[in-house]
Design brief:
Elements (H helix, E strand, L loop, with lengths): L12 H4 L12 E6 L2 H11 L4 E6 L22 E6 L5 E6 L18 E4 L2 H13 L4 E9 L3 E7 L5 E7 L9 H5 L3 H8 L6 H9 L11
Parallel strand pairs: 1-4, 5-8
Antiparallel strand pairs: 2-3, 3-4, 6-7, 7-8
Helix pairs in contact: 5-6
């Protein structure tokens, strides 16, 4: 698997920080792996209420083509690939790999530790009850994860993927304002950064790039 390399830190403001505004627009799709597509679709469509958007089979490789993982494609040809609407104009996708593939360690470096889905307070409670009614074990929570009001609970999908449902229980049902509800003050952010680095110039760069939705006084 290829790894990205980081160029030496530039002191140019244009190159070193985003000045609070992201260059990207969020997730287009998050692609996960299953070895049982019907089971997976049943869970995400029927239990979590995600409509199917698109389904296809990945193209077969030409004779003699390299079968190693490359250019983003799975190492298997002609396998099912489905896309689900997970809300927020973003998609959740699954590839169906052959049976017998070793499951990944979700807590390894470079692994996806969990996926957290956002919803409003009423839907948060509805999904919790919906999961329980379908026999899904809630492994942690509901609990307060980010004060004053961000709550969540954790569970696993049928593939063993760790999932979380998060909600600002003091927030609006439709206008979730996820970034704003999770923002912190410059003072709080600086204090947290100082626990992982003593490079003041780097910390200044990171603080300069923080979201403009920070709460509380600016240091």
């Amino acid at each position: 698997m290829g790894t990205a390399t980081t160029a030496p830190r530039s002191r140019s403001r244009e190159l070193s920080v985003a000045v609070g505004k992201p260059m990207l627009r969020g997730i287009h799709h998050l692609a996960l792996v299953t070895d049982d597509m019907p089971m997976t679709l049943d869970f995400y469509v029927r239990v979590l209420g995600m409509p199917i958007v698109h389904g296809l089979r990945t193209p077969s490789r030409p004779p003699g083509a390299n079968h190693s993982h490359g250019n983003g494609a799975p190492p298997y040809a002609n396998i099912p690939h489905y896309f689900l609407d997970m809300g927020g104009d973003s998609l959740l996708a699954f590839f169906e790999y052959p049976k017998g593939i070793t499951k990944a360690d979700r807590d390894a470096i470079g692994a996806m530790q969990h996926v957290s889905f956002a919803c409003g307070p009423t839907r948060y409670r509805e999904i919790l009850e919906r999961l329980k009614a379908n026999g899904v074990t809630i492994n942690a929570g509901p609990l307060l994860v980010i004060p004053p009001a961000i709550h969540s609970f954790y569970f696993f999908d049928p593939n063993g993927i760790r999932l979380e449902i998060s909600s600002d229980l003091d927030g609006d049902e439709e206008d979730l304002q996820v970034t704003r509800s999770c923002s912190m003050s410059e003072t709080e952010l600086r204090a947290e950064l100082e626990t992982i680095s003593n490079d003041k110039a780097w910390i200044d760069d990171m603080v300069a790039a923080m979201t403009p939705h920070g709460l509380g006084p600016v240091s």
